[in-house]
């Protein structure tokens, strides 16, 4: 009887633990929204949206999206700058290839900014106009 109880307890633990891991993974995937070019362009037209180019100043000057604000991911004050952003707004992020924005989305969420999206594959995949 005791042996059956131990086996049942182990299976219960494994099921509960597996469900917990799965739900945490699903939650983190839901919080990070990767937008394709078309979806990004559509989102840009919505109200209360701020477009952030997190590339370097030199990259920004080579061409950027209309109305984009440049906040360099590599600068020491990046986290401080995002801490000062309005948490009620929606932020659209992009970088060169999507690597920096993938990291930045997590920082935004840690700072309590829930509405953050990033351009999948970055500006190198952008098929819209650029400003210089």
By CATH reckoning, the class of the largest domain would read Alpha Beta
* CATH architecture name of the largest domain: 3-Layer(aba) Sandwich
Strand order of the largest sheet: 1-5-4-2-3
Calculate Rg over CA atoms: 20 Å
Distance between the termini: 76 Å
Rounded average pLDDT:
84
- In CATH terms, what is the fold-level topology of the largest domain? Oxidized Rhodanese, domain 1
Q: DSSP strand (E) fraction?
A: 5-15%
Give the topology string: H per helix, E per strand: HEHEHEHEHE
Major sheet details: 5 strands, parallel
Count of β-strands: 5
* Total number of domains: 2
How would you classify the helix and strand content by structural class?
A: alpha/beta
DSSP helical segment count: 5
Low-confidence stretches: 16-30
Percentage of residues in helical conformation: 40-55%
Shape: globular
Mind explaining what this structure looks like?
A 5-stranded parallel beta sheet has the order 1-5-4-2-3. The chain is globular, with a radius of gyration of 20 Å. Helices cover 46% and strands 14% of the residues. The chain is an alpha/beta fold. The protein has 2 domains: 1-31; 33-125, Rhodanese-like domain (Oxidized Rhodanese, domain 1, 3-Layer(aba) Sandwich), CATH 3.40.250.10.
């Amino acid at each position: 009887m005791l042996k059956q109880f131990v086996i049942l307890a182990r299976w219960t633990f494994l099921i509960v633990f597996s469900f917990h891991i799965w739900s945490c993974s699903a939650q983190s995937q839901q919080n990070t929204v990767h937008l394709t070019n078309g979806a990004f362009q559509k989102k840009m037209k919505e109200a209360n949206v701020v477009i952030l180019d997190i590339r370097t100043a030199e990259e920004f000057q080579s061409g950027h999206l209309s109305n984009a604000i440049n906040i360099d991911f590599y600068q020491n004050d990046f986290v401080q700058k995002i801490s000062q952003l309005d948490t009620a707004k929606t932020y659209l992020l992009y970088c060169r290839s999507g690597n920096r924005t993938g990291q930045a989305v997590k920082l935004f969420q840690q700072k309590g900014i829930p509405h953050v999206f990033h351009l999948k594959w970055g500006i190198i995949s952008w098929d819209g106009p650029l400003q210089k």
